[in-house]
Amino acid sequence: MAIITDEQNKFFRLVTKNTEYQMKADNFGVLKHLWYGKHVNTDMDYLLQYPEISFSGNIYEAENDRTYSLNTLPLEYSCEGNGDFRVWALSAEHPDGTRALDLRFADFEVRKGGYAFPGLPAVYSDENETETLEVTLEDACSNICVTLFYGVLEELDIITRAAVITGGRETVYLERAASLCLDIPRGEWEWVHFHGRHAMERVTERAKLVHGVQESSSVRGASSHQQNPAVLLCSPDCTETSGECIGAALMYSGSFSAKIQLDEVDQTRLVMGINPDQFRWELRSGESFYTPEVILSYSADGMEKLSHNFHKVIRNNVCRGQYKLAERPVLINNWEATYFGFDEEKIFNIAKQASELGVDLLVLDDGWFGKRDSDCSGLGDWTVNENKLRGGLGKLVERVTGLGMKFGIWFEPEMISEDSELYHAHPEWAMTIPSRKPIRSRFQLVLDMTNPEVREYLFNSVSAVLKSADISYVKWDFNRHIADWYTPTLGKDNLGEMPHRYVLGLYELLERLTNAFPNVLFEGCSGGGGRFDAGMLYYTPQIWCSDDTDAFERTTIQYGTSFFYPVSAVGSHVSAVPNHQTGRVTPFESRAAVAMAGSFGYELDLNTLSDDEKNAVRGQIARFKKYGELIHNGLYYRLSDPLSDKVAAWEFSDGKDALVQGMVFRTAPTSLQLLVKLRGLDPDKNYRLDGTDFTASGAALMSGGYLLPRTWGDYVSFELYFRQI
Ligand code: GLA
After folding, report:
1. Is the CB of residue 101 less than 8 Å from the CB of residue 144?
2. What separation in angstroms does the CA of 61 have from each of 30, 64, 324?
3. Looking at residue 137, what is its pLDDT?
4. What is the per-residue pLDDT across 431-483, written as a single tens digit (0 to 9) for each?
5. Does the active-site annotation cover 533?
6. Across 234-242, average pLDDT
7. What are phi and psi of 606, to 5 degrees?
8. Ligand 1 atom closest to 410 (CA)
9. Which of 335, 342, 409 to mutate to test the pocket of ligand 1 (most atoms within 8 A of CB)?
10. Catalytic site includes residue 139
11. pLDDT at 1 over 80
12. How many CA atoms lie within 13 A of 172 on its CB side?
């Protein structure tokens, strides 16, 4: 039993293998948050404090008790207008223009199995893996109800949270409807977030909380490169292997906000969900608004354990389809090899060479359709460009599959070029604001995904291509952000619904297409990893991690990505040097070592390689296939911090064997060898390093470590396989 309820005291405990979460409704019906941490087996109500803090609002029923204030109590779901002056999870405008709400306990229900809301991605599981608690709160004045959903995955130490807001007596406009409010009244916390930009995503930043609000967010219509919709709170002493931390990942691909507030009495509140800056939703009487889900986990043993919890739940309970646990094909992508300058012969030659070296799948990237010789035109016209692919797509696919390879193809369905047939036929499908000039980005406009006709067109045109030939893979790109929020499909009072309706439209289309083509592997992409979130991973089990293919830079990007997302989700390729994004030259083997910590592939013209390099490719693919199971299904350990250490080192271990890979950034003269300490081994067992006579106990390798081979040059990789004996 993961959910333990005490009906009389309205006391709820969510108990997982290593964690416990508690909440309780008091005599006023206020649902207070009591605990999220280790097992405590005690009603943690005794820790609540009722300080008299002037200028805090007191609810009327508290009469003359100035110590009872919703401004200081830890709450399960905060709202505007009840004397709580911290960040609100919920805010609504009533017909009279007022905005107050006062949520009190109404009801609860416990069920076996998980929950899912219409049109939104959700953690799924077997009925026996999850229990769900629903707690309904009501604002008596308006009859607006909020049902808080808690999905408890006991074995995984995961709790999912979401809220459903149901309209009361009259129509209101929701102005905020967060998925999660988490109050942490105790302790000192730091936060970790993942910021960046195009080609430099998920840079890890850890900071002490300052009083006031700190935020990780996007207003770009996509989760974005700029900040990732996943944040971590940790104790100041938290390391990879010790200390407390809480992780929260929003399953959402649109504009989001995660606000963390350190309040006037040093309590911490996290509110996470759809970004209220781009949200206003008409909620009619009896209608429900469903928030996206947040995946939560707590670890008392540092960030590594927290990451393992997220990796397991995302790999097993978020990603779907036949590829979710299957070996991913090693692919060759022509983008950095050719950009727009290719014809069928060039592509076939890349495929031919790749197939000889053991690559499984050729991905034909941007430029195969419409009038698409540069990024100025053609988006929206998903019919083959026969000037480039003479004889059509079918013929090329046949030739490539004839080599024993699979064939994949690039789309950017949500976009439209003004210079396209689609734009001439349907200018009204492009998102533009009447009377204003549209904002261009990469010369393109965005299609109105709230319009069902647009989705129908995209379903039909993408389907037609996929049906026209033996296509096994789709790369789904999204190469700009959204500025022109206008659609003729919504009236002026409802335009605030558009950013969320856009995401719902995208999800509907992805759901339809992934169902219609269950054997196709979909890889997400947005100028690299600009939409790398748990929402997209529900539809696309891997996502191109970054347009930065420089192996050195990638160690940082993949390090940041690894806090929440499993290795199998990380699309990662070996590319040419000098690198196309940085001009840096890194050794071939180093590029392979970094790309192997992901869903592996190549992105260069293999015909240009020397014979030695071609042999190296054969070896790299063989090693990826040999270690693939361990890399994707083993536990991932961050052995160093590439942002501050001299080395990037990571480990995959299944509890028995361990593969340690990484890169020494610079060789220093007359220096001692660098050391890595392994983790996750059995201290009492011995391990042999493959290809050597070296043996050591797990205890020695974990406490003492292993001396990395001496290096010559910069960015030199290493790969060490320790086998339990
Ligand atoms: C984006 C992707 C690249 C490539 C280009 C094509 O930038 O991230 O991998 O597909 O688009 O235009």
Report:
1. yes
2. 11, 9, 53
3. 98
4. 999 999 999 999 999 999 999 999 999 999 999 999 999 999 999 999 999 99
5. yes
6. 98
7. -65, -20
8. 10
9. 335
10. no
11. no
12. 31
pLDDT (average), residues 389-405: 97
What is the residue-wise DSSP string for 205-248? EEEE--BEEEEEE--SSS--SSB-SEEEEE-TT--SSSB-EEEE
CA angle at 542 for the pair 540 and 545, rounded to the nearest 5°? 125
Averaged pLDDT, 336-349: 98
Residue with the nearest Cα to atom 3 of ligand 1? 527
Residues shown for the chain: 725
Q: Is 360 helix (H, G, I), strand (E, B) or coil?
A: coil
- DSSP string covering 123-148, please? ----TTTEEEEEEEEEETTTTEEEEE
Q: What value does the mean pLDDT of the chain take?
A: 98
Q: 105 - beta bridge partners?
A: 137
Averaged over 188-200, what is the pLDDT?
Answer: 98
Query: In this structure, are residues 199 and 581 in contact, taking their beta carbons and an 8 Å threshold?
Result: yes
Alpha-helical runs (H) found in 318-451:
335-338, 344-357, 392-402, 421-425
**Cβ–ligand 1 contact at 335 (below 6 Å):** yes
Q: Which two tokens stand for residue 93?
A: 């405008």
Cα separation of 415 and 257, whole Å?
25
| Residue of the CA atom closest to atom 1 of ligand 1 | 527
Percent above pLDDT 70 for the chain: 100
Of 134, 373, 511, 613, the catalytic one is: 613
Cα distance between residue 202 and residue 260, in whole Å: 19
Rounded Cα gap, residues 574 and 593, in angstroms: 9
Backbone torsions φ then ψ of 642, nearest 5 degrees: -65, -15
Instruction: Report the atom number in ligand 1 closest to the C-alpha of 365.
Output: 10
Q: Can you tell me the distance from the alpha carbon of 487 to that of 480, in angstroms, rounded to the nearest whole number? A: 18
Q: Which residues contact 670 (CB under 8 A, 6 or more apart)?
A: none
Letter string b/e over residues 378-415, b meaning 16 or more CB atoms within 10 A of that residue's CB: bbbbbbbbeebbeebbeebbebbbebebbbbbbbbbbb
CA-475 nearest atom, ligand 1: 10
Q: Once rounded to an integer, what is the mean pLDDT over residues 160-183?
A: 98
Q: Which of 497, 523, 533, 605 is catalytic?
A: 533
Gap between the Cα atoms of 99 and 521, Å rounded: 46
The C-alpha angle with vertex 552 and arms to 363 and 208, in degrees rounded to 5, equals: 115
Beta-sheet pairing, 158-166 with 288-290:
antiparallel
**Residue range 685-705, pLDDT digits in tens:** 999 999 999 999 999 999 999
List Cβ<8 Å contacts ≥24 apart for 208-216: 208/236, 209/260, 209/262, 209/268, 210/262, 211/262, 211/263, 211/264, 212/261, 212/262, 213/87, 213/259, 213/260, 213/261, 214/259, 214/260, 214/261, 215/257, 215/258, 215/259, 215/260, 216/257, 216/258
292 Cα–ligand 1 center, Å: 28
How far apart (Å, rounded) are the C-alpha atoms in residues 538 and 253? 11
Determine the Cα–Cα distance for residues 253 and 246; give it in Å rounded to an integer: 21
| Cα angle, residue 570 at apex, residues 714 and 479 outer, rounded to 5° | 100
**Cα–Cα distance between 217 and 230 in angstroms, integer?**
10
What single-letter amino acid sits at 427?
P
Report which of 551, 557, 552, 313 is spatially closest to residue 543, judged by C-alpha positions.
557
- DSSP letters spanning 629-674: HHHHHSEEEE-S-TTTSSEEEEEEE-SS-EEEEEEE----TT-PPP
Using CA atoms of 426, 427, 430, 436 in order, give the dihedral in degrees to the nearest 10.
-160
Tens-place pLDDT, residues 90-117: 999 999 999 999 999 999 999 999 999 9
N- to C-terminal Cα distance for the chain? 39
Q: What is the pLDDT of residues 204-214, one digit of tens each?
A: 999 999 999 99
571 lines ligand 1 (CB under 6 A): no
Give dist(CA 399, CA 393) in Å, integer.
Answer: 10
User: Residue 532: how many CB atoms within 10 A of its CB?
Assistant: 32
Radius of gyration for the chain, computed over Cα atoms and rounded to the nearest angstrom: 26
What pLDDT is attached to residue 55?
A: 96
